[in-house]
Specification:
Layout lengths: L6 H19 L5 H8 L6 E3 L8 H13 L12 E8 L12 E9 L2 E20 L2 H14 L3 H4 E9 L2 E9 L7 E3 L7 E17 L31 E6 L2 E7 L6 E6 L2
Parallel strand pairs: 1-2
Antiparallel strand pairs: 2-4, 3-4, 4-8, 5-6, 6-8, 7-8, 9-10, 10-11
Length: 268
Amino acid sequence: MSLPKDSLKCIQDAWYKLLVDFRAWYMPETILTNEWKKRDIGIAIKSCPSRMMDDSEAMLAEYRKNQNADVVAGATAFMPIMLTATAAIDQPPDTMQLIPMPYFVPILIGDKQVRIRLIAKTVRAQIAFFATNSHDAKSVCDQFCTYVQDETKRRFAVPFDMGMGHIQKSTFTLVENQLFPSPVPSEAINLSIFTVDAQLIGYAPQIIGLGGPFDNDTGNGYNPDGSAVETPINDSVVVQADQFADDGHTRVLADRDTGEITVERIND
């Protein structure tokens, strides 16, 4: 049985698709940025390992090494180029942003009754744009900052792989309200680098009852000592669950027909 894609990989894939959508939205201002916009996506936007976060020149070196492996020996990788890295943040989101839902809520997925809980996640995302001049690099980063000021762009769906062929979508939000391009000093000749940092927050769903590789036999919770509790799911399905806090509460709604989960923050 194949394992489902891990939650961070699902978020990274959705972030990359957001960058692809940005490139389609972007309005070129120069010949070089117009070429970048029209270039094949595989040599226009590349993902880098999370360990290279904040080391833009290491990102570029890794990109050039990999890119040149597919072309004539010694050839120079295409410029300009957008590179991105993402990494999970150890500290969970502030409860003013997201309150985790650690208890299972019964819902219907198709004709199957399952249970879902939500884990609050924060992922740091960084883009670095490299060009032969500062105008091109800043142009792209300036427009990206404008792009994510649109609420319909800063909120995007992450399709989480739950296993057994089921994808559960959850909305993530780019939470920075004052994004700005940051120039990166470089000793390289004819190279300008600008970066933009952001945080992506949202809920990663966990579902039991689908019969996936991580399901336990009972799929309904745990005793205080860590052993599984066998509590069969009955015919009733919860369509609303609330978690209260001092500053308000979180309401989770489950669509009885589609199984889609909606999370609302309610300030009482």
